[in-house]
Amino acid sequence: MTVGEIIFFFTVFVTMIGALAAVLARSIVHALLGLITTMFGIAGLYVYLNSTFLAMMEMLVYVGAISILIAFAIMLLGSYSGMSGNLRAVGKLTLAGGTAVVSVYIFFKFVLTNMNPLSFAKYLVTTKDIGRVFTENLVLPFELISLLLVVAIIGAVMLAIIARNVK
Amino acid sequence: MSDMFYNNGNIYFFVALFMLFCGIAGLVYRRTLIGMLISMELILNGAGLNLVAINRFISPENPYGAAFTLIIMGIAAAESSLALAIIILISKRYHHIESGDLKELKF
Amino acid sequence: MGGLVKLLDTEMVRLAVGLVLALGFVVFNALILTWMERKVAGHMQLRIGPKEVGPFGLIQPLADATKLLGKEILIPKAVDKTLYYLAPILIFIPVIVAFVVIPFDSYLLVKDINVGIVVILAFSSFTVLSILLGGWGSNNKYALIGAIRSVAQNVAYEIPLLLALLSIVMMSGSLSLKTIVEAQKGLWYVFVQPVAFIIYFIASIAETNRTPFDLPEAESELVAGYHTEYSGMMFALFFLAEYTNMFIVSSIAVTFFLGGYNGPFFPGFIWFLAKVYFLVFVIMWFRWTYPRVRFDQLLNISWKALIPLAFLNLLVTGGLLKL
Lengths: 167, 107, 323
What we know:
The complex is a heterotrimer.
Chain A: H1 3-24, H2 28-48, H3 52-77, H4 89-111, H5 127-136, H6 139-165
Helix pairs in contact in A: 1-2, 2-3
Chain B: H1 10-29, H2 33-57, H3 64-94
Chain C: H1 10-44, H2 60-70, H3 81-90, H4 93-101, H5 116-137, H6 141-172, H7 177-182, H8 189-192, H9 194-207, H10 233-257, H11 268-287, H12 295-322
């Protein structure tokens, strides 16, 4: 049991607790905190999967931009953003129980048997490799994502102009 | 090092599957639109983790998984910004954002 | 599995020692900076500043710390307890992470991560999150307005910061901080890219919420902005984090533009600390020279002036590198 494995278990635990909090929390700000915890955990898992650049990008984009955007919207809406949960207690229990049963079944059937474990990874995914993939193989998605982002910005600005004219 | 728990691929697939289930459960369970958006982010994260785990364990030659996960992050950013703009517009019109009463097709 | 926990890994020991030293340095740095701020403020306003406690007022920070520690921590009844307690803790994470990566000397570095600058930038968004959560959790109108202003300002100024640093990364070809310092052994980058330095400096002053960009904690307008409801030790934590943040952004400026720890006679870290504290003095100088910028002017400076300039700089850098 090296320190690496202890930290790995802690990271997986943090991810799963965050996902549960994001679904089951009563107040929406606590759900957002659960989402941020999950993203932190997923960034840690990316480090264990030998992509440190991707881990830092996940923190920059998800924690640094999307979570702040959602928090900003929650604060702008204020008392309009209500509480959550409309199923009665029976429905809630069925949903939770079903999810738990399926997850436990999958865990015991697949995780505890050894797949072909790869030996220690041959390389670390560096920024240079990702850049090379984007400019040699995945050129079209790269260009399309920039087009998508421009369209999203224009759309958001248009919606803001409409929102200003609604009284 | 192949006896380390984190070099065995199944645990990553299990975590990604767990996040997908949590995201779908949240999408059904949450009543407000922002709660549904938070569950959507969980689903997208789970998909990204799945891709990177496949890249590392099954085909580690090219970092396609990492590159495509970056594209997924870009899509998630664009989608959440537009969704939040629409949610703010809805709240101005209906004065609440519970999804039960949003039934009209004309703005 | 099973058996002993193998703890004596040299990297783990180095990391643990580095973290402890970083925490010690945070407190030491806060003591120096509070003294320096009050003395600089005093002399700029043609008065002397604190002189009673100790020679030249050198023990004044200890007196301040004792006062803050002894104050009663008043927690209003209607705060959201999770967010209220989480905010001052969360604001320390980017600071500690940054200390792991910054090279004080060629060997005084905890770990040379190969995506070093992205680590610092990714974690500096935690500051924004903590301000937002602190402002919302305080359940107070003034705190909320201060928090929202701070978020808008921070998000707007992150972009020119990233773009200015990106031109330096393009020139040196690596994201790791130590490689960038080593590449400046001949000529400092500030002479090659002065525009990027100015953009970075202005954006970093806005990131740390210092005057002239300190609307989020505007003392004459908003009681105290996002830390209105915090008293005693919790306020001291916000305060500590702001001063350490000033140190961190100055040390990134020194690493990227002013040559890091390179210098002729003295050992590396003396040059590094001298350059960093000179930049901190310039930041404090700005505080007592410029008036506070209005909120729409603030966002206009970022979106209409700094971002196009940073893009143009990046374009010119890319073009000249290819020729």
